[in-house]
Amino acid sequence: MQKTDWRNIINGLEIPTVSYSDQPFVVKTDDEAWLCCVTTGNGHEGAPGQHVSTKRSTDQGKTWSIPVPVEAPGDVENSYAVMLKAPSGRVYIFYNHNTDNVREVKLHHILIGGQDSFTRVDSLGHFVFKYSDDNGKSWSAKRYDIPFRLFQCDRDNVYGGKLCFFWNVGKPFTHEGTAFVSLHKVGQMGEGFFQQSEGALLASDNLLTENDPEKIRWETLPDGDIGLRTPKGGGPVSEEQSYVVLSDGSFYVVYRSGDGYPVEAYSRDGGHIWSEPQYMRYADGRQVKNPRAANFVWKCANGRYLYWFHNHGGHFIREMWGQPSETNGLVKGGGSPYDDRNPVWLCGGIEADSPDGKILKWSQPEIVLYTDDPFVRMSYPDLIEDAGRYFITETQKNTARVHEIPKDFIEKIWAGLENKELPGCEPIFSSASGTVNAPLLPEFFTRNFHSPDYCGASTNAGIALELDLTVDKQENISLINGQRQDGRGLNLNITKTGCLELMMNDGWMEQRITSESCLKTGKNHVVINIDGGPRVVSFIVNGHFCDGGEYRQFGWQRFSPYFRHVNWSEKWTVSNVCRLKVYDRILMTAEAL
């Protein structure tokens, strides 16, 4: 039976846009409406006519008002807006504006094929703001430039800093009466569009109280000539910084790189000086993986944190830049560092003490959103808390949506990180070693008898296998033999290199899915999730979500959307297992731990 999966983005509520749709960010206004800003246009990303508009919702995203353009229609490119509400109720909107109507920009290096310029001009010019005193129903007629100090990367660009390149996706924040707005500076335009980038903060000590926008003061942070970059030895890409303020007043930032790992840093003095940037790590010390994709951190009303990312990467991402082809920076085989933003994963964060002040500890990952086509990319999200409920916006650059995330799902993530007991989940089957009657497992793809053409339909079902086992030598070991002589059914083995190998055959196709080498000599606890929503198999071994480590870009792997079921063998032979449990749903990583 098919069931609705709230994680599939098609089940969200659409935020109307023209066509292209980016950065659907929301603030709650003083009249309790959701005010959403979005960058939109008739063409693709960066096309002429791209502009910022806003709309309001008074029913948590079910319906939206008629869009209000922030700039006059037909004006030059204006893009990548973020908003901040002052205590007075005034809402400020900050965005890029191609005020000088630049139509072409030189590249730092001539690309393979001889290209020496770009005609995409949406990430340059002036960083500006307008304001609304009527909860976003209209915007000030005048726009105001935000002056910012040049860094070394600005002065070293092909225009010597007379023309600057930048954009922003980081949401503004406040601390002790000062407003902070992120800015992603670009020093080189070229390979991958933004070839070199780093993060800055624009701070205003009077924006929250000054009524006259002409009198608003701005300071560029951090101190010195260099912004937030990658760790020593990292690549030139450091962008899309996302900030939160910790309970002791420390600033935490996380941002994307081209290295295959997100970067994090702390400031203990209001953004003037930052700790040496480091690649982000889970609480267990392993590095988090992320491609060249936005990864956002949010602080929730309860003082805990959520982190949005894509859970794959490593050195494989950086190596893609070293093998460019003549088209679009793609490597042989079709890979790109911008790819694979589907599915989306969440981690939970809690504060911990360190000698320098508060730091964040991060949980293991959970799938939060996906769509059926793996080429579709979701990104640029926002989190809204409203009346005790959690909502996330996202866009795949054509359709923006808002999704309610079940409260118990989010609370389980934090509970797992805090080692709190979670509600039990009853297995449908339990066994020690021996020959047993095979359990009847959920089907993944079935005939839809309600359709006039009797087509197939995904059930969105899931299966979890939980095993306690002991490994005492390196050899091929059978754990579950549930296949018929013709191969139909399910097998689970350990390879002689210490990998888990899952074999599924439905008679029409066979799926072979292996983990990285993850088992240790002695006792092991294993959970294997076969998730029929995003069609992802994942392995959680001895408290660690297997992410491929240094050996693979992906730890999780996909299986066919047309794979039907494994209910073929009447008997299973369970071997070398102290305990086996089978569930008719996947286990959250927090539950598996």
List keywords for this structure.
593 residues, 41% strand, mainly beta, 7-stranded antiparallel β-sheet, globular, Neuraminidase, 6-stranded antiparallel β-sheet, Jelly Rolls, 3 domains
What features would you describe in this structure?
- The structure is a single chain.
- 4% of the residues lie in helices and 41% in strands.
- With 593 residues, the chain is mostly beta strands.
- It folds into three domains: 213 residues; 179 residues, Neuraminidase (6 Propeller); 164 residues, Jelly Rolls.
- The strands form ten sheets. Strands 29, 33, 38, 39, 40, 41 and 43 form a seven-stranded antiparallel beta sheet that branches. The protein has a six-stranded antiparallel beta sheet with strand order 30-42-34-35-36-37, with no helix packed on it. Strands 12, 13, 14, 15 and 16 form a five-stranded antiparallel beta sheet that branches.
- Strand 23 and strand 24 form a beta hairpin.
- It is globular and about 80 Å long.
